[in-house]
Every structure is written in C-alpha cells, then in structure tokens.
Amino acid sequence: MGEQPIFTTRAHVFQIDPNTKKNWMPASKQAVTVSYFYDVTRNSYRIISVDGAKVIINSTITPNMTFTKTSQKFGQWADSRANTVFGLGFSSEQQLTKFAEKFQEVKEAAKIAKDKTQEKIETSSNHSQECGRETPSSTQASSVNGTDDEKASHAGPADTHLKSENDKLKIALTQSAANVKKWEIELQTLRESNARLTTALQESAASVEQWRRQFSICRDENDRLRTKIDELEEQCSEINREKEKNTQLKRRIEELEAELREKETELKDLRKQSEIIPQLMSECEYVSEKLEAAERDNQNLEDKVRSLKTDIEESKYRQRHLKVELKSFLEVLDGKIDDLHDFRRGLSKLGTDN
C-alpha cells in the first residue's frame, strides 16, 4: 500500500537467455505496462511489469545499475539480485529516451536514499557506542557517590550534569529500540515480499517452462505447416504451369482456326478465279502478243538510242575539238590585240613628238 507509481509506459519485455547469455527471450506476447514505483515505507524504487496475473519484471533500482540504449528503440539493464538482464522494446525513440531519463532520475534518488539510510545507521551506531561508554561512568558515579539518600545530601553540579546525560542516553536508547522494532518490521516485510517474489519467480519459471513446451510444439507445427505450404506451393506452381499450357493451346487453336478460315476464304477466291481462267488465258495470249510487239519496238528504240549515243559522243568530240581550236584562236587574237595596243601607243607617242 506504501508504493505509488511515478512513471508508466508500454513496451515489449525481454529477458536474456540464462543458458547462452546472448539471445533475448520474449517475456510478453505483446506490449505491456512498465511502471516505476516508489515505496514510501522503505524509501526505495522499483520497476514493475505485470502481464495478466504474471509478474515479468520486479527490479529494485540501485545506484550501481546502468540503463543502456542498444538501438534507437531498445534498451537494457542488468539486475544482479534477479540474476538476469531485462530488455525493453519501445514503439518510438522518444519513449525510450523518456524511460532512460527517468531511470537516471530514479537511480540518483536511490543513491540519495541510500546515503541517508547509511547516515541514520551510522548516527544510531554512534549513539549506541556513546551509551555503552557513558553507562559505566554513571554506574561508577553511583557507586562512588553512595546511596540515593547520600546523593541527595551530597548533590552537586557534577551529579546534575551526569543525571541530564543519563536522561539523554535513556531517550537515545528508547529511540534506538523504536528504530530496531521498525527495522524488524521492515525486515519482516522484506521477507514476506521476498517470499512473494520467490513464489512469483517459481510461477514465472513454471510458466516459462510451459511456454517453452508450447513454443516447441508451435515450432514443430510451424515446420509441418511450412512443409505443407511448400508442397501446396509446388502443386500450385504445377497447376499454374498447366493453366499456362492450356492457355497456350487455346491460343494456338484460335490461331489455327483463324488460319483455317483464311484458307477457306482463299480457297473460295481460287474457285472463283478458276472460273475466269479461260478468259484470263485469252487475255494472257493477247497480252503476250502485245508484249512481243512491245519488245520489238523496244529493240528498235534501243538501236536508235545506241545510234543517238554514238552521235552524241561524236558531237562531244567535235565540241572538244572546237573548244581547243577556239582556245588557240583566242590566244592568237589576244596576241594580235596586244600588238595593236602596242602599235596604238607607238602612234600616240609619234603624234606627241611631232
């Protein structure tokens, strides 16, 4: 009743395999609630997670613990008391960051609580030691001073001081006795909690063993189903191949039927053409006669073309000869023109001199 939740989130819980110390074993089938609890009575912090009626995490935070992020959405910490390593898988990196920050805060608070408890223990121990040292002094003072009547008659400042110190020691002893009772109650509570945790761990171990058997059965069933699926896939592939073959055969039959229809159409056309074969034969003879006449005309035309080519070659030759003669004539003419220009310049010079 003294524990209160201070932070709650949801995550997939894992535990390290105790045999291999490497592989992770799922402690929950789905995401479960993971909470930080603060125990006011014991001044301690715990991480608790329950899946249905089974406690899967019950880890008391100590200053020596460290929460490590192993990926963007997974973190882990080691619990030496439980002799295991817990792992949490979150749905987002933000949830992992918040959980890690809270772990660090709780770790610091646990360290402060431990320091305060240590100080209380040391203070109580010092009071007990002082009580042990000063009690003999009181006894010695009582024996030295005599009886109560003598103390009353011979009371002085020293006796008054010893009496006040004795009263303080009695108060300290009373407080120590109360603290001892309180610690006994806490020890009994811890024992009861340890017994409950032991029972829960035994139940968890039984559940884990049962889960392992179920997992083995499911794995065998899964292997059998995979084999059956492979066989069915092979049968499906054979059926698909047969379907493809049937589709190809249907397509081939359709093509053959189309070719058959084309052949029938061609056959009808040929029959119609066979009816006009005599007319075609007469037309063919007429065309053959025209073709022979055309060939004769073509032969005559070829002879004419050859003669024209010969005339063209002779004409080209004559043109080339005329070009050569014209070129030589032009050269002679250019010489004569030059001579006339020289003669004219001479006449012009002679007229100027006269």
TrEMBL record:
Does Nucleus count among this protein's keywords?
no
Q: Which domain of life is it from?
A: Eukaryota
In its UniProt entry, the species of origin is given as Aotus nancymaae (Ma's night monkey)
Q: Read off the InterPro entries from this record.
A: Homer, Homer_EVH1, PH-like_dom_sf, WH1/EVH1_dom
Query: In which residue ranges is the amino acid composition biased (Polar residues)?
Result: 123-146
Recall the taxonomic lineage recorded for the source organism: Eukaryota, Metazoa, Chordata, Craniata, Vertebrata
Please give the Gene Ontology molecular function terms for this protein.
actin binding; G protein-coupled glutamate receptor binding; synaptic receptor adaptor activity
* Protein name as it appears in the record: Homer protein homolog 2
Q: Which GO terms describe its cellular component?
A: apical part of cell; cytosol; glutamatergic synapse; plasma membrane; postsynaptic density; stereocilium tip
**Which intervals hold domain WH1?**
1-110
UniProt region (Disordered), positions on chain: 113-163
What are the alphabetically sorted keywords of the record?
Answer: Cell membrane, Cell projection, Coiled coil, Cytoplasm, Hearing, Membrane, Synapse
Q: Where is the composition biased (Basic and acidic residues)?
A: 113-122
Membrane among keywords: yes
